[in-house]
Amino acid sequence: MLLGSILRLVYQLKFGAGSKNRTCDLLITNQLLYQLSYSGVSKYFKQYFYTDKFPSFLLYCLKFYVTCQSTSILNRKETKNNAEMSSSENFLDSVNKMFDQSAALLNLSNGLAEKIKVANSTYTVRFGVRLRDKLETFTGFRSVHSEHWEPVKGGIRYSPYASQMEVEALAALMSYKCALMDLPFGGSKGALIVDPKEWSKRELQRITRRFTQELAKRDLIHPSQNVPGPDMGTDEDVMAWIADEYKRLHPTEIDALACVTGKPVRKGGIEGRIEATGRGIQYVLKEFFEHPEDYKKAKLASGLEQQRIIIQGFGNVGYHAAKFLSEEEGARITAVIEQKGSVINDNGIDIAALKEHSNEKGSFEGFDGFSTDSKKTLEKKCDILIPAATEEVIHAKNADRINAKLIVEAANGPVTAEADQLLCKKGVVIIPDFYANAGGVTVSYFEWVKNLTHMRYGLMQRREQERRQSALISGIEEMTDKDFPINLKDLIINGATEIDLVRSGLEGIMREGYQRMSRKFHSDNRIRDFRTAAMVLAIKRIADAYYFLGI
Q1: Cis before 55? omega within 30
Q2: What percent of the chain lies above the pLDDT cut of 90?
Q3: Within its chain, how far is the Cα of 356 from the centroid?
Q4: CA dist., res. 467 & res. 426, Å (int)
Q5: In the predicted model, what is the mean pLDDT of residues 458-470?
Q6: Mean pLDDT, residues 277-301 taken together
Q7: Measured between alpha carbons, how far is residue 198 from residues 194, 201, 309 in Å?
Q8: Looking at 132-269, which runs of residues are DSSP E strands?
Q9: Cα–Cα distance between 430 and 421 in angstroms, integer?
Q10: Rounded distance, CA 157 to CA 88, Å?
Q11: Following DSSP, what letter does each residue of 220-250 receive, concatenated?
């Protein structure tokens, strides 16, 4: 508003139109000088106001004002970027602190411990894409943390705040996750500094294809060396673009589809991949409540039914975890938290209705129980808290106000190292991220194997299973001269489909992972929490792999 008035005044004076109200002119100019707070300019104001030099003087003031405003905006952006950089540094520092505490229990040589901890390599790529009649330059990262197994595995995220340190922290967690879950992968992670909301789908496809080209020519995407998957800001469409671009670059590569996981089913993906991480959280909690010594340590009653659960984050992971826990296990989701607000209902939220509302409106606003205060909702009393969004949600400043008995880290790094210690002192049990959210990489492993074998799961055995089971049921009916119960008959006769086999394999791996972690926790008096137990197991496996490699 002020700038518009000044421009009109400059136009009037510059072209001799004159102003009919010099008092108004004086007020406008004074406002400009007040905004500038620049005594070096204001002291010349009266000297020029009634002379023909005034328009030029005013233009100078205007330019100075615009420069100040631009500098202020840049400073604000720089401050925000510095804050994001500091957050990424803290995240990497937290991961390394947890590693150091666990490695100290294994009597590893200093050299080997350092070798396992640091990233093997991190690549930065910068590339241009012509968009909207302008050449835009994008920066991307791909970090390879550990190659004790190949290929290395880890998602690609699209975020305006991505950084090298964040990517290295996430790559390290992938190494520990794959080792803990006994998956034949090393750890890797990638990111592209881009805000997906700022670009159309067609533009994102062009950006993704260029990013793929830059990574592929360095073998940072390869079926037997480096296999990305989806992460924050990316989805199955992005993975399909990557797979297609890789195939264009390597037209004779028979295993090209195995270069990336998380693809649509019709493009070489696998049934159950989208729900995998949320489904994994369900299996984690089911197994947790099979261990009385563990749920009693958290001061929880037995069984998932009616446990009060708060979900922080309602993206793919948070939504599916909430859906399966409420619909299949009878748990009460008493609060769901998002960036723009939260929904609270102590009797249990209808997750399907909330999802429908969120899809239609783009937020929780207007849904019964909506609240704008997400921070207080995070601190609301509950039995189980599931942070399923971003890192460092629970930190030293709010850890003492967290009112949960059990925290299941569905996101990567949602609890800082300092907060972890404070919560453990309070008696809060924490199931660590690199175990809890391993459902995604587990089903990605199934997809990778499917792409290498070029055959969908269940294809060869389903009909044979159905014939054998049908013959067995017929024999029982003939021997007993009674009809077999219809509901059980259908369940027994129907052969396993791909989704059945994926869920079965996922449940088996998640339950076995928990059992190993729990046994380690209870068998070593030096280990005080599940995170340390899981980390000790992961580091030991990586160390053993290096030993057999002769390192």
Answers
A1: no
A2: 73
A3: 22
A4: 57
A5: 88
A6: 97
A7: 8, 10, 34
A8: 134-146, 152-153, 156-159, 186-193, 226-227
A9: 10
A10: 14
A11: SSBTTTEE--B-TT--HHHHHHHHHHHHHH-
Tokens of 509: 């791996």
Determine if residue 299 is left, alpha or beta; phi over 0 gives left, psi from -120 to 50 gives alpha, anything else beta.
Answer: left
Considering only CA atoms, give the Rg of the chain. 29
Could you list the active site residues? 189
What are the structure tokens assigned to 119, written together?
């990233």
- pLDDT at residue 139 tops 50: yes
Give the tokens for residue 392. Answer: 């460092």
Confidence of residue 12 (pLDDT cuts 50, 70, 90): low
Residue 54 pLDDT level (bands cut at 50, 70, 90):
low
Question: What single-letter DSSP state applies at residue 230?
Answer: B
Give the up-direction half-sphere exposure of residue 371: CA atoms within 13 A in the CB hemisphere.
Answer: 16
Mean pLDDT of the chain: 88
Three-state DSSP at 381 gives coil
Q: Which of 53-67, 235-249, 275-289, 351-365 has the lowest mean pLDDT?
A: 53-67
* CA 413 to centroid of chain Cα atoms: 9
Round to whole Å and give the CA distance between 410 and 312.
9
Degrees (nearest 5) of the Cα angle 235, 240, 243?
A: 130
- N- to C-terminal Cα distance for the chain? 68
280 vs 26: which has the higher pLDDT = 280
Answer yes or no: is pLDDT of 70 > 50. Answer: no
Are the C-beta atoms of residues 250 and 217 closer than 8 Å to each other?
no
What residues contact residue 88 under an 8 Å CB cut-off, 6+ apart? 163, 164, 165, 166, 169
